[in-house]
């Protein structure tokens, strides 16, 4: 684990302990309700490959360690509405506070103002965060292979299933892909960003895709900047994408998103 990733996870553990003192895991579990609406993502992502239709998870974030401040006038609800109107298939919301200036409250706020699935993008290292994700109305969570061992991933997948949460299992290299496939969960993300040095390479998904069995649906994540990138992935058989920074830095969110969806 890289120094920056290690530091993020160390700070996350401290943050979780503070949260547990305010609201215990036992109390948090009681807040989980059958009335919380679940929007399907897993089968939609699988169908997008079968139908060869591009599905984009549009990411909303104020800043990041690699990019600094991305957007000054940050209104996550208005961004989410714009994304949905442009044809985005799901919305990824950064909830990590210390390094991305995210807020977990944005999950429920955006859920109440949109009709598409919501992904909680964070560094999940404790079961507490999974119950928290459900309470704040996320539909999907991210499990990052590089910060979890195999037993943790299996356990977290079990909890997610019990809570009716979909999952994206994020990988970055061949070894992590092999570990992910052994979990037998159908959605695997390939992050084009190297979490050790924070650099991106859109060819990472290209190079690693052939290592994944056709039984799995692949999501290409990070560094995707143009419809030509999308077209390159489509030729391989990738039709699901997580895209954030390039959308947020575009002059016209709606036009850019539509170009990515149509012209890929």
Structural summary, described in words:
There is one protein chain. It contains 12 helices and 10 strands. It is an alpha/beta fold. The chain has one domain: Aldolase class I (TIM Barrel), CATH 3.20.20.70. The strands form 2 sheets. The chain has an 8-stranded parallel beta barrel with strand order 1-4-5-6-7-8-9-10, surrounded by 7 helices. α7 links the parallel β6 and β7 (166-171). The longest helix has 20 residues, at 3-22. The radius of gyration is 17 Å and the shape is globular.
CATH topology: TIM Barrel
Strand content: 15-25%
Q: Architecture, according to CATH?
A: Alpha-Beta Barrel
- Give the total of domains: 1
Sum up the overall morphology in one term: globular
Span of the ends, CA to CA: 34 Å
What is the CATH homology-level superfamily?
Aldolase class I
Biggest pleated-sheet summary: 8 strands, parallel, barrel
Which blocks of ≥5 consecutive residues have pLDDT under 50?
none
Residue share in helix? 40-55%
Mean pLDDT: 94
Q: What is the N-to-C order of secondary-structure elements (H for helix, E for strand)?
A: HHHEEEHEHEHEHEHEHEHEHH
In DSSP terms (H or I, runs of 4 or more residues), the helix count works out at 12
**Strand order of the biggest β-sheet:** 1-4-5-6-7-8-9-10
Radius of gyration: 17 Å
Per CATH, the class reads: Alpha Beta
Structural class: alpha/beta
Beta-strand segment tally: 10
Task: Fill in the keyword field for this structure.
single chain; two-stranded antiparallel sheet; 45% helix; eight-stranded parallel β-barrel; alpha/beta; TIM Barrel
Provide a brief overview of the structure.
With 264 residues, this protein is α/β, with parallel strands linked by helices. The chain has helices at residues 3-22, 25-30, 42-50, 76-86, 105-113, 127-135, 150-162, 174-182, 203-209, 227-236, 245-248, 253-263; strands at 55-60, 63-64, 68-69, 90-94, 118-121, 140-144, 166-171, 187-191, 217-221, 240-243. The strands form two sheets. Strands 1-4-5-6-7-8-9-10 form an eight-stranded parallel barrel, surrounded by seven helices.
